[in-house]
Amino acid sequence: MDELTRRVVSYQQSGEGLADLVRDLSAATYQFPLRNRRCTEDDCGEFLLFVAARISGMVHRYDFRGVAFEAYLHTNLKWLLRTYLKRRDRRLREARLAYRSALWHDTNSEVVDVGPLYDQSRRPLDSGCEDSLRAPSVRHPLPFGPWFNRVQTGGHSRRRVMIIALKACLYLSETDIAMVADLTGFEREWLRESWLRLRVRLNCRRHGYDVLRLRRNRLFVRLQSSHDRLYACCDHAERLRLLHESAEMRERLTRLRLKISRIPRCPTNQEIAEVTGIPKGTIDSALYYAKRKLFAVRKPVARRSS
Predict the structure, then answer these.
(1) Domain edges within the chain
(2) N or C: which end of the chain has fewer CB within 10 A?
(3) What is the tens place of the pLDDT at every residue in 190-227?
(4) Helix (H) or strand (E) holding 95
């Protein structure tokens, strides 16, 4: 019986000397990854952290039957090192995948992703509303420019301007709301309260959107990792399994992207009706005629500016 085995058996019988054993075994564990050419000096510390909680358990489970404790320890550390390397390689592979542009820019022409819902570059509003939403990028800018004063504000036009301003609540600041209130003749406090209530509703919608985006990104990383393993695999049965797994993940990814694309990024007409107390049909018709009039006014101005 060698010295290390004798110390382990002595501890199992007397219950003394565990701290010294763990210290000596930790030193041996730290040097163990250097036997593998895939490991570097940095992996020694990481491997020791990975195994540290198991060292005392190996001492307690050892049963002397003629096999030295050093051989028992070597066998355990060999399998633990294989597990550590698999996890390390998976983390490195996922980190490399995170830098791929396809993870952040959707290239599928059949299913259009809505992209980031909130623009982090825009400063928060001074409305006191916590965790305010940011306006997403849009194809057409808001109809608030030098030519906006040309819009007639008499009769139904005042209400139409107010409704389209609430529809675009993500794009408007508190100063814009005050300007709309002065232009249309509605009370500032009432319009500001409606604007805030709509933004709070959109803010409540943010959690579900963020959860879906997180699930989509995780699934995308898993799919890319599966493709990498497929390219490196030579076994026919394993390739078939990976192909089936990749097909399932692509279907799930398509469903997630469809769910994300269906999340409204602006207040719905029903939400505006509930906040303002105006019938939904009136909201629908007002938005239709307001957009038609605003874009009709905008076209000649755009031609002159170009």
Answers:
(1) 3-100, 148-305
(2) C
(3) 999 999 999 888 888 888 888 898 898 888 888 888 88
(4) helix 69-98
Give the residue carrying structure tokens 């633990």: 80
pTM to 2 decimal places: 0.49
d(CA 222, CA 219) in angstroms, rounded, equals 5
User: Which residues have a Cβ under 8 Å from the Cβ of 70 and sit 6 or more positions away?
Assistant: 2, 4, 5
As a 3-state breakdown, the chain gives helix, strand, coil percent values, each rounded to 5, of: 70, 0, 30
- Sign of the Cα torsion 270, 274, 280, 283 reads negative
50-55 long-range contacts (CB < 8 A, ≥24 apart) are: 50/80, 50/84, 51/77, 51/80, 51/84, 52/26, 54/80, 55/22, 55/25, 55/26, 55/29
Q: Are 169 and 195 in contact (CB under 8 A)?
A: yes
